[in-house]
Amino acid sequence: MKKQDILENLVNVVFLGIGSNLGNKKRNIEKAKFFLEENPIKIIRSSNIYETYSWPNKNNPKFYNIVIKIITKLKPMNLFYIIKDIEKKLGRKKSLVNRPRVCDIDILDYRGQIYKLHDNDNKLIIPHPRLHNRNFVLFPLFEIEKNWKHPSKKTKIHDLIRKLDNSSLYSIKQI
Q1: Which domains, and CATH codes, for the chain?
Q2: Above 50 in pLDDT, residue 126?
Q3: pTM of the model
């Protein structure tokens, strides 16, 4: 057996962010987790729920967000397609960027690697390009993985949290 064959059979550690600001937000997040596990995906850890204002329009409903740690043998683009199907199944419609939504699932980190993938219709960048500025990602991620390090910035998560502005620190609460 070649070394490559062995590597392909290993599971991948992945961090996903799940958010909702329409409908029953807690139930939407739980349904997303359920649908993820109907696939070749196992949830290892899940953060508590964090509530934040919508961005950029604070008048939109507040968001509930979690971060989960999963293991999967899926490749990044295959995982991305499953995530998009789950979002649709939960009622997400194509709309303008940053609009309210029933469910939003982002691949935050895949094996601590850097990926820039695309097909005819989709572009996937991992780690998520704005992850390091988002309190609703950093706080739940820190909760479940205190030693996490940003793959491209090579910065520890507690240092990323320290760099958040004061409004980011005070505008989030754990539910």
Answers
A1: 3-174 (3.30.70.560)
A2: yes
A3: 0.91
